[in-house]
Write a structure and sequence with these properties.
CATH topology: Purple Acid Phosphatase, chain A, domain 2
Shape: globular
Strand order of the largest sheet: 4-3-2-1-13-14
Number of domains: 1
Distance between the termini: 31 Å
InterPro entries: Calcineurin-like_PHP (IPR004843), CNP_phosphodiesterase-III (IPR050884), Metallo-depent_PP-like (IPR029052)
CATH class: Alpha Beta
Pfam families: Metallophos
Mean pLDDT: 93
Protein name: Metallophosphoesterase
Family: Belongs to the cyclic nucleotide phosphodiesterase class-III family.
Organism: Candidatus Thiothrix anitrata
Number of helices: 7
Amino acid sequence: MTTAASKSVRLWQISDSHCYPDDSTPLEWSTETVYPNQSLRAVLNHLKVQVADHDALFITGDLAQEETAQTYQRIKVLLDDFPLPIHVLPGNHDIPELMQAHLGDKITLPSQVSFGQWHAILLDTHAAGKPDGHLDDAQFNQLEQQLRAIPGGEFAIILMHHHPIDIGSEWMDRMGLQQKQRFWEIVSTFNCVKAVFNGHIHQAFHGEYRTASGCVIPVFGTPATCIQLKPTHPVFEFDHLRPAWREIVLHPDGTLETEVHYLELCKLSEHD
């Protein structure tokens, strides 16, 4: 883990693996044949050879499609030999209690992870039985306390499953974070917050929230490790099968860089 103030922090974010207990099970709601466990394994195998300069892997929800103990046990096997710390949070397809019980000690479900002067705050927007995102009073109070505790001259990013701003897709925006206004009322009062990263939307997205004072907080959506959906469409529509991940580089001066990468299908087939 990077702690030196003079060194950039390099992170990976993956999201929405939608796994099953068996690697040969295809994704049930896809019109295309995709094997989500195999797609996740291919991304992890690709990233393993690049870990020397990186500090952690974040998984922002919807690890499971079949929400059973056996699925999380299989995910644990897929993740067990990954050579970096792994921090996860649940999505609407997950059951947090099963995640906690079966992912193992190496894979943590924290509310905050610190890398020297940078702090990653993880918000659990999962609500049982609901596809949209929710935060309750206790979570908002904790978020405010976490941000208030960050010392001057240090910085924060926020990771969550559901998107906190609309992405221009009518059907998907109905399933975003429902308490957007309160979220931004809190976040926009702290200059330490440099970006928000979400999953859930199965597409790359770059938007922004502009505060009352004119400051801009960027919001980045990260595509899935399985199926991708077409952006800005009013209804569900398949886009492509290339699995994705996001790289995040946090610099000592409070700036950041981020980029989405896709694994080509030919590389995916090598690991099937």
